[in-house]
Amino acid sequence: MGRVSWPTRLRDTGSDPDPRFSFANERTFLAWIRTALALLAGGIGLEAFAPELAVPGLRQVLAALLVLAGVATSALAFRRWLRSEVAMREERSLPPPRIAPWLSYGVAVIALAVFVLVLVANL
């Protein structure tokens, strides 16, 4: 016997939720993917177009952190969608987004670092 695909395993779990909730879950998934793309674009843009910062090499580190945040967000978006879909099918509460605090605080720290370094570079 071969492996059962994940869509089959999902459909065999619980019962079908209201399609409106599944579509809302899908829109949330797509929002996480857009966020991942924005982080990737921000990291690439920082490396490609920003001037050297006050500390040599720091621009590359900040750009890499943004790209890695985009990779993590993209990788975890599907897991988030699947966990939410299973919870709805089993009529359980939706799980909290585990990456949200890391993502929001991480982006805030990187943005603050870029702001300070650009400010110092222009003094």
Q: Count the helices. How many?
A: 4
Helix-strand pattern = HHHH
* Annotation, overall tally of beta strands: 0
Number of domains: 1
Mean pLDDT, all residues:
89
* Helix fraction bin: over 70%
Q: If you compute it from the alpha carbons, what radius of gyration comes out, rounded to the nearest whole angstrom?
A: 19 Å
Report the principal-axis shape: elongated
Low-confidence stretches: none
Question: What can be said about the biggest beta sheet?
Answer: none
What percent of residues are in strands? under 5%
Condensed summary:
The chain contains four helices and no strands. It is an all-alpha fold.
Structure description:
- By secondary structure, this protein is mainly α.
- It has one domain.
- Helices cover 75% and strands 0% of the residues.
- It is built from four helices and no strands.
- The chain is elongated and about 60 Å long.
- The N and C termini lie far apart (68 Å).
- The chain crosses the membrane at residues 29-49, 61-82, 102-121.
- This is DUF202 domain-containing protein.
